[in-house]
Design goal:
The protein has 338 residues and is of the alpha/beta class. The chain has helices at residues 12-24, 40-53, 71-80, 95-100, 102-122, 156-175, 206-212, 240-257, 273-284, 308-313, 322-335; strands at residues 3-7, 28-33, 61-65, 85-88, 127-133, 178-184, 186-188, 219-222, 234-235, 237-239, 261-265, 271-272, 290-293. Strand 5, helix 6 (156-175) and strand 6 (178-184) form a beta-alpha-beta unit. Helix 1 (12-24) packs parallel to helix 2 (40-53), helix 5 packs parallel to helix 6 and helix 9 (273-284) crosses helix 11 (322-335). It starts with a strand and ends with a helix. Bound molecules: uridine-5'-diphosphate-4-deoxy-4-fluoro-alpha-D-galactose (UFG). Residues 5-327 form the NAD(P)-binding domain.
Length: 338
């Protein structure tokens, strides 16, 4: 059974993917995270969940604290463990912040990934599943967006991920590195038992911000003058557990096919901010205080995926609805309010 290194395993999507791997596979897992955005509590919860399921005597999940920007940190992990493949989540991922502080994004996302890839090649590890993003497409020329859509990012975050995609292509040609790039659309929801979930500080994402609004805190809609059916932005919200499953399938595809490829991961359906807000009010069965303010910089009006390719090749499809994502987010939010 492979040993997989999961960078950014203490973060939102990484931790849900580890949960999927604990529940569905026997892979050994090394969690690598600098805990800048990830949380040690999340790691501890994963270790606890695993210990309840553990059938073997040897440790199946090991946490290694480290930073991809320090090549020694990653080198130590590869020297210590016999790693077979990597799922690479570790990155900064906020569009607006990337515009204000591009250096942070290029240094961490690109330079950190280069350290990782060079260490992989040095240790003859040539399988990687990579978190890419629909932000590499930029303003859509058509929707739904398929994988052939031109990639013209409009912010440093999108550029950093596109650069990594290109680097991976070059490393394939030169060193035989095989990568599956999953271009996620918007990710939502949480573990359905509320054990782990979306935990960002500060929180900027739509659904958690709606759920956090209360009598003293009003939810803000950023712009209602877009050219869409109700004037608010349209996005494609894929459930984090479905996304986690896509990572497992992508890794298994690499094992079987040993081929580089790229897949959009979304639902194929777009919901406006207003529609998401209404769905949250229905799930919570209460009125949520709301106000409308101006547009947020860098927000395209409409983004939703064509997911035909991933359905055909990885045999993946989304199983959970927007309401399911809102319900699990709310459960996590209620259990972890403090
Ligand atoms: N929004 C609001 N109010 C809020 C938060 C968000 O109106 O309090 C709106 C945004 O303006 C946007 C939509 O809700 O129109 C979704 O915003 P999010 O911040 O939840 O997500 P983004 O689309 O900005 O970005 C996310 C990830 C990126 C990824 C992108 C792909 O953070 O890493 O999805 O679409 F690239």
């Amino acid at each position: 059974m492979d040993m997989i290194l999961i960078t950014g395993g203490a973060g939102y999507i990484g931790s849900h993917t580890i949960l999927n791997l604990i529940e569905k596979t026997d892979y050994k897992i090394i969690i690598f995270d600098n805990l800048e955005n990830g949380h040690i509590e999340t790691v501890n919860t994963l270790l606890e969940i695993n210990s309840k399921r553990q059938r073997r005597a040897d440790a199946r999940i090991i946490f290694e604290k480290g930073d991809l920007r320090n090549i020694e940190d990653i080198e130590n992990v590869f020297n210590k463990h016999s790693i077979d493949g990597v799922i690479h989540f570790a990155a900064f991922a906020l569009v607006e912040e990337s515009v204000k502080n591009p250096s942070k994004y290029y240094r961490n996302n690109i330079y950190g990934t280069l350290n990782l890839l060079d260490t992989m090649i040095k240790h003859n590890v040539k399988r990687i599943v990579f978190s890419s993003t629909c932000a590499t497409y930029g303003n859509p020329q058509y929707t739904p967006i398929n994988e052939k859509h031109p990639q013209n990012p409009i912010n440093p975050y999108g550029y950093s991920k596109l650069a990594i995609e290109r680097i991976m292509d070059d490393y394939d040609k030169a060193y035989g590195l095989k990568s599956i790039r999953l271009r996620y659309f918007n990710v939502a929801g949480a573990d359905e038992k509320g054990r782990i979930g979306e935990w960002h500080e500060p929180e900027t994402h739509l659904i958690p911000n709606i759920l956090k609004a209360n009598d003293v805190k009003t939810f803000t809609i950023f712009g209602n003058d877009y050219d869409t059916r109700d004037g608010t932005c349209i996005r494609d919200y894929v459930n984090v557990l479905d996304l986690a499953e896509a990572h497992r399938l992508a890794y298994e595809y690499l094992l079987e096919e040993n081929k580089t490829d790229v897949f959009n991961i979304g639902t194929g359906e777009g919901y406006s901010v207003k529609e998401v807000f209404d769905a949250c009010e229905r799930v919570l069965k209460k009125k949520i205080p709301v106000e409308v303010k101006g547009r947020r910089a860098g927000d395209p009006a409409v983004l939703y995926a064509d997911i035909g390719k991933v359905k055909n090749i990885l045999n993946w499809k989304p199983e959970r609805s927007l309401e399911d994502s809102i319900k699990s987010s709310y459960l996590y939010f209620c259990k972890n309010k403090k």
